């Protein structure tokens, strides 16, 4: 039959459904989370590996997650320790027991008989100082961001120094008898010598104010740096002592360290086999007051050097505690129950390090 032999005709699809012959353009896969939820997800990540994996998921996530303090607020502090290779270091994530490699700035050793590299931590940055002893003594000083590898080279320091501080673009390096300072991008350092009666023990920057513990009676003073072009200012430092001093008879000859917590100036007193006492400066009353808690916050020290603090309820970190590192051990002292716990989890080898492991804070980005 004609009708049986008639071929069934398939209707053409509507023109709106026709496929384009143009090649498709490669695009990122659709995101798994709504974009507005990504910052909230990032705030709950406790490892850098997870944070950067989330950023790498797609372009939209990367644009929503710049390296900022709010996005990295849950990141635990890391311990910077030397690795077997003298030119590299390891960043230890203690709560998760993870190791991240960190390579220092390469040093040009050509023609240098002896080069000593020193590392100072500055929140989420490290200051790398290469001291050369060939011909004339010289130092190279570079500040490196641990997450972005951004590097800022500073002028060669005119004086030797033991410690370095960073607040905004102000860099302060100091030794017991002198202070040198400069702004990032400035062509030279400024210098100020210190008299014998005001030799420095500790120095800290709190809200852009420089505070020091001086040798004369273990007193604490605010220091005003001269803001002029005199590059050899021997008498320009102005010391304003906070008070006559605290009760040295009560605390005895101990180790005194300045610290900061939520913008408040603290004086931390280390007592052998007794843990720590913490005094807070009450500016309105003009006196030091001993405190027995930190409002849930945590202080971090490397030896007697204050490294930073974290706010309350930080994942994997005990609140109202002081974390301190030695050449092989990490100590945790609780201001609440006065317990003192120690372990060797910060060590990668049997022999002690030449210097205590240093704290690095990704959340201070």
From TrEMBL:
Domain KIB1-4 beta-propeller: 137-325
PANTHER family, A to Z: F-BOX DOMAIN CONTAINING PROTEIN-LIKE-RELATED, F-BOX DOMAIN-CONTAINING PROTEIN
One Pfam family here: Beta-prop_KIB1-4
Residue spans of biased composition, Polar residues class: 15-25
Annotated Basic residues bias: 1-10
Name used for this protein in its record: KIB1-4 beta-propeller domain-containing protein
Residue ranges of the region described as Disordered: 1-25
């Amino acid at each position: 039959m004609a009708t049986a032999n008639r071929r069934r005709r398939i209707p053409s699809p509507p023109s709106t459904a026709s496929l384009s012959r143009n090649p498709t353009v490669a695009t990122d896969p659709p995101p798994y989370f709504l974009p507005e939820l990504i910052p909230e997800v990032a705030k709950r990540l406790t490892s850098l590996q997870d944070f950067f994996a989330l950023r790498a998921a797609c372009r939209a996530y990367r644009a929503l997650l710049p390296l900022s303090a709010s996005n990295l607020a849950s990141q635990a502090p890391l311990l910077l320790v030397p690795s077997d290779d003298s030119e590299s270091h390891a960043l230890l994530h203690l709560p998760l027991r993870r190791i991240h490699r960190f390579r220092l700035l390469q040093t040009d050793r050509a023609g240098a008989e002896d080069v000593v590299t020193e590392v100072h931590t500055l929140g989420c940055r490290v200051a790398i100082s290469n001291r050369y002893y060939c011909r004339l003594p010289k130092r190279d000083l570079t500040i490196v961001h641990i997450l972005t590898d951004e590097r800022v080279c500073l002028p060669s320091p005119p004086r030797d120094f033991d410690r370095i501080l960073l607040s905004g673009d102000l860099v302060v390096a100091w030794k017991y008898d002198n202070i040198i300072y400069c702004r990032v991008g400035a062509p030279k350092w400024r210098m100020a010598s210190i008299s014998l009666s005001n030799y420095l023990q500790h120095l800290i920057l709190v809200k852009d104010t420089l505070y020091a513990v001086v040798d004369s009676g273990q007193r604490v003073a605010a220091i005003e740096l001269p803001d002029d072009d005199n590059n050899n200012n021997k008498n320009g430092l102005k010391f304003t002592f906070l008070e006559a001093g605290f009760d040295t008879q009560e605390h005895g000859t101990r180790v005194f360290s300045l610290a900061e917590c939520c913008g408040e100036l603290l004086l931390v007193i280390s007592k052998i086999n007794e843990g720590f006492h913490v005094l807070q400066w009450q500016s309105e009353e003009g006196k030091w007051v001993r405190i027995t808690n930190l409002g849930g916050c945590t202080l971090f020290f490397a030896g007697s050097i204050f490294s930073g603090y974290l706010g309350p309820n930080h994942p994997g970190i005990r609140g109202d505690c002081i974390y301190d590192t030695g050449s092989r051990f990490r100590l945790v002292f609780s201001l609440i129950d006065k317990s003192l716990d120690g372990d060797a989890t910060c060590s990668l080898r049997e022999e002690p390090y030449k210097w205590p492991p240093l704290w690095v804070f990704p959340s201070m980005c």
